[in-house]
Each structure stands twice: as structure tokens, then as C-alpha cells.
Amino acid sequence: MYKSIIIGTGPAGLTAAIYLARANMKPLIIEGPQPGGQLTTTTEVENFPGFPEGIMGPELMDNMRAQAERFGAEFKTGWVNNVDTSSRPFKLSVEGLGELEAETLIISTGATAKYLGIPGEEDNVGRGVSTCATCDGFFFRNKEIVVIGGGDSALEEASFLTRFASKVTLVHRRNELRASKIMQDRARSNEKISWALNRTPVEVIAGDNGVTGLKVLNNETGEEEIIEVSGVFVAIGHHPNTGFLQGQITLDENGYIATQPGTSETNIPGVFACGDVQDTRYKQAITAAGSGCMAAIDAEKYIESLEHSAVTL
User: Which of 11, 40, 85, 183 is the most buried (most CB within 10 A)?
Assistant: First the structure.
């Protein structure tokens, strides 16, 4: 029996672990196959406060993990197959660990960026391929880049990236975009944005120093073309890692955990969510960490209320 179990070890989960461990709650943190979350796949992080010279993503996550361990947090590796929130204590079935019980549960399993699955794509993440304009746009100052996608997010990222890049080419497999009219009008009025519509990405081209181009199929002519760029931003969405919940916690229409406004509380008392698994808007390391702090404080207050009720009874 644990007072609190945290599922996931990105910035949200590790921040929650630090706060709960300092509160002497001895949390258990379950690490999945990618401890540290998406930041372990990035190179230099320059927008996390406190590191004026930047810090490598894996190093930042290692530091946060060590900080949690320093205060007594316990880490175990396993794959959560399902959770039972129908009664207390909550029960978790974890491959490699068996069945665990907890008074509170913090879910920080994050969201996974969708990739196209084309050759050269995932091999060059951090070498010119990115799924986060806010995180990596600065590295492409005065360079030509492409953004792949046709929704609001793609056009928003393309517009943002014009602050840094000399030219942004938006690549979409259809002639028509899914984005709202206002986003399309805004993008089309931006002189730095060019259009490569009705083109299907085929391969990310890279050399020794990273990305050099994107090979696309012209759907009208059937011929392949190469767009010479230094960066490829994939903006086709994310999918939250909530499959293991199996309908026990309220999700929104896109599968993200629904939390009460201004809190980390879910529809199940004692179950809290933080980080990208419940964040459909910001998706930044610093906002994930902040929500992890919220979840830890909410969990601590919840346990205090249980203990108070037990004493008064």
C-alpha cells in the first residue's frame, strides 16, 4: 500500500515526485519504456528557467529524477496494463511488478507526437526533425524549413516559425486545408510562408550534419520532388497515452484526461492528472512541471482530508 503512486516520469511526474517526497509521503513512481518522457529525445533545452546556457533534455530529466530520489521517492520500472478506480485503495496491474495499491494516483503519462512513419524521420529527431515549434524554432534562425500538416496547429506553428526562419513551406497531402478560415487567412497573408499542397511526404533527407531536405510526391504529376530545407516540423497532432485507463476516468473527445478547471482533479476523487496527458494547449516542459506541482499538492491535501476524517470518526 502506497500513499501515492505516480505513473510517468516526464517533467510533470518528476515534479510531483519531488513535492510528495519532500512532504514525506514516500511516493512510488512507475517508469515506462521511455523514462523521462519526450525530453529525453530532444537535444538542448533553452527555455526551461534556471539554465541560462541551456541544458540537454536527458540531463534535465536525470537531474529531476535525482532530486526526487534525494528526498526518498522510489522508482520502479514496469508497464501499467490497467487500473481499477472503482474502489479504494486503487489497484494497478503492472507488468513486471504485479498488483499494487495506492490511496492516491497521479497520472502523468504524457502524449505522444504523431509521426508520418517515413524513412529518415524518427532517425533525425533532434537533427532537424521536430514536433514542437515553440521548443526548437530558435535553432532555425535564418534557415529554410518545412511544416507538415493541414490543421490549425500546423498553420499556427508555421506562422510562429516565421519569427526565426527565412522561409517556411507548408506541405500538405491535399489541395484543401483542414484549418479554420481565420488561420488560413492569417497564414496566406504572411510573406514568409509558401505552399506545397497536394504533395505527400516520402522521405526526410539528411547528411552528416542533419536534415538537408524533404522528398515529396507530387500527387498531380506523380513525380517526386525534393524541397531543400534545414528543418522539418511534423505538425499532425498528438495522441494522449490513456489507453490503459479503459474508460474508468473521464476523457475529452480527443482522449485527454478531463480535469476540474484550476486543479489536477479528475472525476474520481483521489485520482489526479498532470502534464501533457491532460494539456491540450501548452504542451511545454515548464507547464508540465507546474501541473505536476499542482497534482502533488492536491494529492497531499486529499490524503490529509482522509486522515482527518478517520480521526474524527
Answer: 11
Q: What is the mean pLDDT of residues 78-105?
A: 94
Q: Three-class SS of residue 130?
A: strand
Q: Are the CB atoms for 266 and 273 separated by under 8 Å?
A: yes
Q: How confident is the model at residue 313 (pLDDT cuts 50, 70, 90)?
A: low
Cα three-residue angle 222-228-231, rounded to 5 degrees: 115
Distance CA 144, CA 167 (A): 5
d(CA 74, CA 100): 14
| DSSP element (H, E) containing 95 | strand 90-95
pLDDT tens, position by position, 42-70: 667 888 999 999 898 889 999 999 999 99
d(CA 201, CA 215): 6
Inter-CA distances, 38 with 8, 30, 130, 208, Å: 11, 16, 11, 24
Q: Answer whether residue 312 shows pLDDT above 60.
A: no
Tell how far CA 202 is from the center of its chain: 25
The grid cell for 242 is: 490513456
C-alpha cell, 261? 478547471
Which residues lie across from 29 on neighbouring strands?
A: 6, 75
How far apart (Å, rounded) are the C-alpha atoms in residues 291 and 305?
21
Catalytic residues: 132, 135-136
